[in-house]
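Lecture 7, part 2: worked example. A protein chain together with pyridoxal-5'-phosphate.
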Amino acid sequence: MSIDNDLELISSFEKEYCINVFAPLQVAFSHGKGVYLYGVDGKKYMDMIGGIAVNSLGHGNRALTKAISTQAKKLIHCCNYYLIPQRAELAYKLCSKTFADKCFFSNSGAEANEAAIKIARGYFYHKGIDKNEIITAKMSFHGRTLLTCCATGQEKFRRPFAPYCPGFSYAEFNNFEDLESLITDKTAAIMLELIQGESGVNPASLEYIKNVRKLCTDRGVLLIIDEVQTGIGRTGKLFCYENYGIKPDILTTAKGLGGGVPIGAMLCTDEVAKGFLPGDHGSTFGGNPLCCAAANAVLDEISNKFILDNVIEVSEALIAQLKNLKSKYSAITSVRGMGLLIGIDFSDNFTAVGLKQRFLSEGFLVSSIGEHTIRIAPPLIISKKEAMIFCNALEKILKSDKKTSGFKKAGQAIPVEINKKDNTAEAKEDTKNELNNDSNELEE
Ligand SMILES: Cc1ncc(COP(=O)(O)O)c(C=O)c1O
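Predicted complex, written out as C-alpha cells:
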C-alpha cells in the first residue's frame, strides 16, 4: 500500500489515527522547492507561512539538504555522554554571533523556554537567593508544555490542564508601568517576546524594551527574550534584539534554526550559566549530530549577507504594497510586523479562516490567527517578485469579493468564505468547522 499520493487515504488515516489537535486543511505536499510546495493533488502552492517561520531557507535548499544527508550517512545520533563536534561548532557559532557565552540545545521552542525558566530559577537558587517568580506578558505565547503554558499570558491555553504551575504573573504588553508594578523581591526574571507572533504579530515598542532592560539591570532581575519565532534572520538581523539595541541575559530560539529539522537553543551569559550544574538539566535528543549539522548549515547560509539584506528589501516592498492595498480596500484594517513576520488585519466581516481557505484555493499558504488576522512568515529567500505575486493574489481576492458579494465601504464587506445567505444545515456545519479550525491553528 502506498499512501504518499492518495489524498483521500491520507485524510482518512489522519482522521482515524491522529489525535485531532490541529484540524488540518485538506491538502498534503509531496515536495518543495524554494518558496513553493507541491501538493499530492498536483497543484503548486506559494508557501507564505514557511512551516510557521521554520523553513528559513525555503524548501530543498542545497546546502541544508547536503549537510543533513552527509551527516545522516556518518552519524545521526550519539548521546550526551560524549563530546559532539557538530554541537561544539554550533555553540561556538551562536556565541560568536550574539551576546551569549554559553548554549544549551533542545528539540523545540517550548523546551528552550523550559530551559530558560529553569536556569533563571537555578541561577538564584545556587546563589542562595530566594527569587523564583517570572513575569511574562499578557497575550504572549511561550509553548505547549505545562510550564510554558503557564508562562504564556493567555489562560485559554492552560485552562483544561489545571492545576497550574505557580510562580508566574502577567503584565500588559507594551505597558511599562504595569510591568514595573508587578516586580517584587521574589522576581527572578521577566520573559518577553519582541514581537508577539501568535496573538497577531504585535511588536514591542523600542522605548518599552529599553526601559525593561534598564529595569531588569537596576532591580537584579534577569531578562529572557523569547526569539523562538523572531530569531534566525526573520526580522532582518540574526536576532530581533539587535533591532532594539539591547542585550538579553537569556535568549531562546528554535523554529528557523534547523530550517525544518527540529532543534531549539537557549543562549545565556557566562554569569547566568552558573544556574545549571551538571545533572541539573538535559535532553536525550537535544544537540544531536544530525540536528546540529542542519543548524550549522542554516547559520552559514544566513550569515551570508544576501539573506539578511533580502529580508529587509523584500519586507520593505511587501509592507509598502500591503499598505497600498490597505489604502485602496477598506477590508484591510491594519498591516504590521517586522522583516518577514507580518500580520494583516481584516474588517469584522472577513473571517481569517475563510481568507486562509480562499488563499489556499488560489494556491497560497498563509496562517490565520485570531478572528480576523492573517499572518505571513515566508522563507527568507523569497524574492520581491514572488512577494508581489502574493499581493496580487490578495488584491484578486478582495476584488472578486467586491464583484460577487456587493463589497461597499469600510466595514461593509461580506465574508470571503461564509455565504450569509446559505442557511442550510450543511453550510452551518461548514462554518462551525472553519471556526474550530481557526482556534486550533493558534494551538500549533
Ligand atoms: C514565541 C514562541 N515561543 C515558543 C513557541 C513554542 O515553540 P515550539 O512549538 O517549537 O515548542 C512558539 C511557537 O509558536 C513561539 O512562537
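The CA atoms of residues 212 and 218 lie 10 Å apart. The chain has two domains: 7-60+305-431, 75-303. Keep this in mind for problem set question 3.
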